[in-house]
Predict the structure of EF-hand domain-containing protein.
Amino acid sequence: MNSFSVPDAAIRLNQASSKDREAFGQMFDSFAGQTDTLTVEQAKLAVQSVIPDISPQMLSRLSNEYGRTVSRSQFEQFMTRVFLDAQPANEIRRAFQLIDVNKTGTITASQLQDAMESFGDRPDIAETEAMIHEAAHTFPDKVTIDELISFLLSEDD
């Protein structure tokens, strides 16, 4: 990854869009039939039907975290995590939209600092300015969503 890392909590959102949650609910219903829970094995099949290459470690979380059965809300919560893990750019976009309170399409070091502080990190302004400076290409003091995605998902050489 790049030389700076945003805390996991700063880019992890605990819910997907309403459209995504609706799709997760429909998936739950199609596997659950007339019951209000899925077995862990049914839940694993449901997840694999959407993301066939999901890691075994992620699948093992189902039984580790929920036991032998999974409720609809637990399934939606789990699928949100899987969905966001599988599509980090979407997760970054959602976080960016929350940080960009003025809806300018850019975020400043101050906005990034505020967001990181809300998740328990305490960077000083010099740190967030350095992060913005490293990620930004269009403006010297703010970063666009595409620049941030590129920066956060890039690999250092």
About this structure: The chain has nine helices and four strands.
